[in-house]
Amino acid sequence: MAGAADQGAAARRAADSTARSGQEAAGGMDLDLRKVRYFVAVAERLHFSRAAEELLIAQPALSRQIRALERELHTELFVRDSRRVELTEAGRRLLDDARPLLAAADAARRRVARATQAPRTLVVGFRTGIRVTEAARAFAAAHPGATVEARRVDWDDQAEAVLDGRVDLAYVRLPVVESGLALTPLYGEPRMAALPAGHPLAARTELTSADLARQTEILHLCVQPEPGAARPVSAVRTVEEKLEYVAAGRGICYLPRSAALLHSRPDVSYLPVVDLPPDQVALARPADRTSELADAFTAAALSVAAATG
Hints:
The chain is an alpha+beta fold. Helices cover about 45% and strands about 20% of the residues. The protein has helices at about 1-25, 35-45, 50-55, 60-75, 90-115, 135-140, 160-165, 210-215, 240-245, 255-260, 290-309, and strands at about 80, 85, 120-125, 145-150, 170-175, 180-190, 190-195, 255, 270, 280-285. A 5-stranded mixed β-sheet has the order 4-3-5-10-6. The chain has a 3-stranded antiparallel β-sheet with strand order 8-7-9. The chain has a two-stranded antiparallel ribbon with strand order 1-2.
C-alpha cells in the first residue's frame, strides 16, 4: 500500500539520520542507544541507585554499562566518589547530544510501527474545541476500509506530535512552529474574552480590545518553546488553568469561540471581542512525507470547512 510504503521510507530516513547523529556524537563510531539511555538516566539524576531503579536493572549492571560506554568513547563521563556523582565536561556535552538522538530514535520506531501495524488507520490530532467528527464522517464515506482515530494535542506539542509520528496530521491553531510542517488553512473563528462572572464588563454584549486593555491583567499561555528548550515551570499551560485564574479574579483571557463553548462554567462570562483577528485553524502534516489517506482526509476537512464557514 502506497501510504504504508511512504511511511516506512520516512522511518528509514529518520533511522539513518539517527545513526549519523550517533556517529557524529561519538567521533565516527556507532553508539549503542541502550547505553546512551542508561547514561541519560544517570546524568539526569546524578545518582546510580535511583537511575537503576527507574530503569529496572541492578545497579552493578548499570555501572558496568556506563563504564563500557566510557571505554568506547575513550573519556570519563562522570566524576564519582562515595558522596556524589557529577558530570564531566564530556558528559555534559554527551547529555546535550543524547536527548535529541534518543528522541529521533523513538520517533523512527513509532513511524515504523505505525507503517506496519495499521496501514489503514489515520490518527488525527486536534486542539481543544475543534471537532473532527464531520470531516471523519466524510472521509469514512469515501474510504470505507479506513478508520480515523482522534487524539488531542495541546498548544505546546501540536507541531511535535505531527513531526514525531504520534499523529498523521493535526488540526492546529496558528501560530505554530512551521519548520518541517505543511499547513493547509481551514477556517477562522471569533475570539472571546473570558471574564469573572462579576466583572463590570460582564454585563455588556460585546467588547473591544481597548475595553479590556484598561482593565486587568491579560493571561497568556506561556510562549511556545523552541525544540529542546525547557518550559517555564510557573507558566499557565492549559485552558483549564487559565480559567481558574479568571474565575479567581486574577485576570482575563482570550479563547476561540469553540473552546469557550466547550468550557462553559457559571463563574466565568464569555463575550465576543469584535476587533480582534479571528483564531486561525489549519491542518498540519509532515512536509517530507506523503500519504494517500492524509490527502483524502485533508480534502474532506476542506470540504467541511467550506460548507460550514
